Amino acid sequence: MSTDQISYAPMAAPVKQIATHPLCPITAAEIKQSVDLIRSLYPAKTDFVFKAITLEEPQKAQLVPYLDAEHSGRKLPHIDRKTFVCYYLRNTDKFHEAIVNLFQQRVESNVRLGPNIHGPGDWEEILLVEKIALEDEGVKAEIAKLDLPQGTAVLCDPWIYGSDGINDDLRMYQCFLYMRDPNDPSNLDSNHYAFPLAISPVVDCVDFKVIRIDMCPTGTDHATKEAQASWLPPPNEYTPEHQNLRTDLKPLNVVQPEGASFKVTKVGETGEIIEWQKWSFRVGFNQREGMVLYDVRYAGRSIFYRLALSDMIIPYGDPRAPFHKKAAFDLGDAGAGAMANNLKLGCDCLGSIHYLDAVLATARGEPMPMENVVCVHEQDAGIGWKHTNYRTGKAAVVRSRELVIQSIITVANYEYIMAFMFNQAGELTYEVRATGIVSTQPIDEGVDVPWGTIVHPGVLAVHHQHIFSLRVDPAIDGHANRLVYDEIHPMPVSDFNPHGVGYTVAETTVQKSTGLDTNTDTARTFKILNESSRNPVNGKAVGYKIHAPPFQKMVADPESFNHKRAEFADHNVYVTRYRDGELYAGGKYTNQSRGGAGVRAWANRKESVVDEDIVLWLQFGLQHVTRVEDFPVMPCEVIKLQLKPVNFFDKNPALDVPPSNQEFNRSTLVTEQHKQPAVEGRVGEGAACCSSKL
Amino acid sequence: MSTDQISYAPMAAPVKQIATHPLCPITAAEIKQSVDLIRSLYPAKTDFVFKAITLEEPQKAQLVPYLDAEHSGRKLPHIDRKTFVCYYLRNTDKFHEAIVNLFQQRVESNVRLGPNIHGPGDWEEILLVEKIALEDEGVKAEIAKLDLPQGTAVLCDPWIYGSDGINDDLRMYQCFLYMRDPNDPSNLDSNHYAFPLAISPVVDCVDFKVIRIDMCPTGTDHATKEAQASWLPPPNEYTPEHQNLRTDLKPLNVVQPEGASFKVTKVGETGEIIEWQKWSFRVGFNQREGMVLYDVRYAGRSIFYRLALSDMIIPYGDPRAPFHKKAAFDLGDAGAGAMANNLKLGCDCLGSIHYLDAVLATARGEPMPMENVVCVHEQDAGIGWKHTNYRTGKAAVVRSRELVIQSIITVANYEYIMAFMFNQAGELTYEVRATGIVSTQPIDEGVDVPWGTIVHPGVLAVHHQHIFSLRVDPAIDGHANRLVYDEIHPMPVSDFNPHGVGYTVAETTVQKSTGLDTNTDTARTFKILNESSRNPVNGKAVGYKIHAPPFQKMVADPESFNHKRAEFADHNVYVTRYRDGELYAGGKYTNQSRGGAGVRAWANRKESVVDEDIVLWLQFGLQHVTRVEDFPVMPCEVIKLQLKPVNFFDKNPALDVPPSNQEFNRSTLVTEQHKQPAVEGRVGEGAACCSSKL
Question: Which SUPFAM superfamilies does the entry link to (chains A, B) (predicted)?
Answer without folding.
Answer: Amine oxidase catalytic domain (SSF49998), Amine oxidase N-terminal region (SSF54416)
